[in-house]
Amino acid sequence: MASDFYGEILAPSGAYKYFINGDWKESASGKSVAIVNPSTRQTAYNVQACTQAEVNEMFEISRSSQKQWAQTPLWKRAELLKKAATLLREHALPIASCLVTEIAKPSRDSMTEVIRSADLLDYTAEEGVRVLGQGKILNSDSFPGNGRNKLCLVSKVALGVVLAIPPFNYPVNLAVSKIGPALMAGNVVVLKPPTQGVVAGLHMAQCFHKAGFPKGVLNVITGKGSEIGDFLTTHPSVNCISFTGGDTGISISKKAGMVPLQMELGGKDVCIVCEDANLDLAAKHIVKGGFSYSGQRCTAVKLVLVHDKVADELVSKIVPQVQKLSVGMPENDCDITPVISETSANFIQGLVLDAKEKGAKFLTEFKREGNLLWPTLLDHVTPAMRLAWEEPFGPVLPIVRVQTVEQAIEHCNKNNIALQGCVFTQDINRAIMISDAMETGTVQINAAPARGPDHFPFQGFRDSGIGSQGITNSLEMMVKTKSTVINLEAESYAMG
């Protein structure tokens, strides 16, 4: 069944096709891009290397499809999203298998990502009908000096063409979190999947295709970022960019001009542990938050700032839990699997070596085999070390000892990537005070940072992002306000 469902997306050459105007096509370039399995470091798939001319064609088709799609009733858009969600669940296994191969995500977590994405679409459909179905009527006499001779009808209309660019670590979920609200709001979408995770993205797109969405409403381009990346993000047909990733987003934002942006660019998520914290709870969440999916999460715990009075006890609870983490291949559902690339592994290793040279204490041994890095816990990390500030995006967790909570907050607020953070204390008043002082997008109290549930607002401060995500916020961001003013005849109004 799965092979029949997905058969049309694979070209005779063995390379996956791209999706345009309801059809799967091969690029006129005759070239392909190799997708490397992080575990084996061998080519696992090939996808089309699309050209700038094909990008132009895709945007032209998107623009011509958008007005008719925007006229589709809300209930019908919701119905199609729910059909796509059903197909995602029915075909979750092959999509999850792609995630295991392309991004070395453990099997169980890969399945969770696909099912979570289906749940997100269902919620988006229902929330979209509620949020987008509401308008306002304003009367002119509510403003001084005016009579009741004007009515203003305020409605929400689509932006147009949304360019969606998700990251490698959640290529299905973070694609769906952009596509769902955009389509529900009457926009059309051009999806540029990440290189690692692109095949899972193509499989996901097939679910939208088979759900019955009209041609041209969702299009998927593949290719080399060096050839089509800037061309996509600066294209004059783009009316909104929703991007999740790293520093590339800063470059995009500088070139985007007047285009609305929704961006999440990562963060150095700190965990503040107060002297009155429940240390068993803190240790459990620190290990889970720091090492899930090998630390390759924008909301992973990236730095522990613990009060010196309880640091030794906290460390004694964390170390054995880290030592129990299984290390190996994603097919075996190991806790720690290979990081996404050799470049990433080299960067992480550089951060660790810098900390070692500057006197950090290793609580677990740093080991590496190819892209597979063993979980590494470092204590007595100082602000002079790169690990105190830079985001490793790997299974490495530094611990900084502080004398006061104020010192921890100061360190948090000095970092320019401020997505999330967390604080552990048994004093709720203190927790709120610390949360208020932390200049970061979201603060979790007595739990590790996390993106979900997917309808919660999700945003970063400073270089961590622009705008706010979460299903409701995304729906509202994907529309613009339009006013229609009805001018009543003065004579008729006077008669009333």
Automatic annotation (TrEMBL):
Keywords annotated in UniProt: Cytoplasm, NADP, Oxidoreductase
Superkingdom: Eukaryota
Cytoplasm recorded as keyword: yes
Major localization listed first in the record, in broad terms: cytoplasm
Active site: E264
KW Oxidoreductase (keyword) present: yes
Aldehyde dehydrogenase domain: residues covered: 24-483
InterPro entries: Ald_DH/histidinol_DH, Ald_DH_C, Ald_DH_CS_CYS, Ald_DH_CS_GLU, Ald_DH_N, Aldehyde_DH_dom, ALDH-related_metabolic_enz
UniProt name for this protein: NADP-dependent glyceraldehyde-3-phosphate dehydrogenase
